Amino acid sequence: MPGRDPSRIPNAKAPTMADIARLAGVSTSTVSRALAGAPRIPEETRQRIARAAQDAGYAPNRHARSLRLKRSRVMLVLIPDLANPNFPDLLMHIDRAAYDCGYDIMIAHTGVDLHRSDRYVDELLAGGIDGVLLTADHCPPKLAERIASGVHLPIVRTLSPTPPGTGIAGVEIDERRAAYDLVAHLAGVGCRRIVHAGGPPAEPVAIARRKGWEAALADRGLCADGLYVQSGFRMEDGAAAAHHVLAMNLRPDGVFCTNDESAYGLVTTLKASGLRVPEDIAVAGFDDLGFSAVFDPPLTTVRLPRREMAVAAVARLKRLIEGDGEASIKILPHELVLRRSSQCT
User: Fold this and answer.
1) Nearest one of 161, 120, 115 to 137, comparing CA atoms
2) Is 179 in the same domain as 299?
3) Average pLDDT score over the chain
4) Domain housing 46
């Protein structure tokens, strides 16, 4: 009787792995390994087992499996700023990827208190959490101390660059190259005085993007002197940077903002002063937030592959948790998204 759901039949006995094995014509151990996602099982066999499990209404007991493997099946995700539109989008993809791998996630908002995450590190060390996914440069002090002492822990960082040799795996884009390509585009449409409204000076992403801006200008014989404006990641930071741009004796013809959100504030302020974007000054951001496509004018930017980063980071963390991975850096491709804010035609 295909499609039978024992949970809807009074006093029905829940199907077991042995039942699935009989339906699929394989051994119970093969069913166990297939449902756990073990490698070296033929795809046809894996699909046959999945169909048999679905038809029987089988639901694995994750709690029992966690006890057997001495794992919690929980990944800790550290988020520095839930108000930043980058993070809710990334978090949604992380949650889906973790669920697909048989894990739950626990979220810690470190923007409230950087030391708050140390409490969760205690959970990791006690076995209540299996691994940590960092989404910014900040690493909890307790975690950093353990790594520095040579303890190998399952940790992956995404969105922010991870230097090699730190004991932390990374899934990221080449931030410097992406910024270089964006500035090269601005130069390619005729900009010769290109300001960089940079992010917080200690942030690795801001450092990498500034280096990309400097390299792109240098390779084209363009001057960077006096064209760097210290800004930040928020709209009000971009608005403040716009006032610096407007106060320059020789007005720039292009601005590369460290992210999209600050670009929104910069463009709004420039337009309020009477300047036209892009006719008087071209502007580009970084991140490709959802609003950037409908902003006025639509914003040229670098698209962060947030879904791909989330999936790859969760998969890497799962392998580290299960002892089948190393703390290496994976670089994903970036994409330039060219829109009206940098192009007059």
Assistant:
1) 161
2) yes
3) 88
4) 6-53
* Maximal CA-CA distance, the chain: 83
pLDDT at res. 163: 85
Question: What DSSP assignment string belongs to 66-106?
Answer: HHHHT---EEEEEES-TTSTHHHHHHHHHHHHHHHTT-EEE
Residue 190: other Cβ atoms inside 10 A: 10
- Per-residue pLDDT tens digits for 200-231: 999 999 999 999 999 999 999 999 999 999 99
**What are the residues facing 105 on neighbouring strands?**
75
For 208, counting Cβ atoms within 10 Å of its Cβ (0-12 exposed, 13-18 middle, 19+ buried), the class is: buried
Count of residues for the chain? 345
Does residue 217 lie in a domain region? yes
Render the burial of 305-323: b for 16+ CB within 10 Å, e for the rest: bbeebbbbbbbbbbbbbee
The number of CA neighbours under 13 Å toward the Cβ of 89 is 16
- The reported pTM is 0.79
Residue 10 has pLDDT above 60, yes or no: no
Q: Which has more pLDDT, 62 or 73?
A: 73
- Domain of 14: which CATH number? 1.10.260
H/E element, 123? helix 117-126
Q: CA angle at residue 53 from 50 to 59, to 5 degrees?
A: 115
Give mean pLDDT, residues 184-192.
97
pLDDT digits (tens, 9 = 90+) for 269-311: 999 999 999 999 999 999 999 999 999 999 999 999 999 999 9
Phi and psi dihedrals of 311, rounded to 5? Answer: -65, -45
Same domain, 157 and 81: yes
In a domain, 1, yes or no: no
With a CB cutoff of 8 Å and minimum separation 6, the contacts of 9 are: none
Is there a single domain that holds both residue 234 and residue 170?
Answer: no
Q: Which amino acid is at 343?
A: Q
Q: DSSP for 275-317, please give it.
A: --TTTT-EEE-SB--GGGGTSSSPPBEEE--HHHHHHHHHHHH
